[in-house]
Fold this sequence. Notes:
Elements: E1 14-20, H1 25-39, H2 46-63, E2 68-77, E3 80-87, H3 108-115, E4 118-124, E5 127-135
Antiparallel strand pairs: 1-2, 2-3, 3-5, 4-5
Helix pairs in contact: 1-2, 2-3
Amino acid sequence: MPVTATPRPTGHPGYSETLPRKPQSALLARRFVRTALAAWGLEELVDDASLIITELVSNAANHSRLPSIRVIVSRTSEDRVRLGVVDRSKDLPTMRTNSNGEQIRGRGLLIVDALTEQWGTELYPWGKQVWGEIQVRNAS
């Protein structure tokens, strides 16, 4: 039975959804992000946001330890959208800066860094949230 991501308001405005800690959850996360952005009338951000959330979900699926992750989409301000993935690992993500052309994996945070205004990690007593913020184009 497929898992569906149903957006729910969670604060000033935001959406969050728990998904299985599997690489296949990136598809559900992209749909979830698309739904949240459409609710805010920010469809122009879908392409970049989809790529960012795919990389964050992939990292969590590969490095976390419990069977679920939490995807969060929020507005930190009128001109910013934050995409985050919460997992139960305290291991901090590291951005690879070497350019080994034969290496297929390990470039996700380079993509996140290139597409976001800023990104970071919030540590919790039981895990962390890795997030990236994108600029809303033509914010009024």
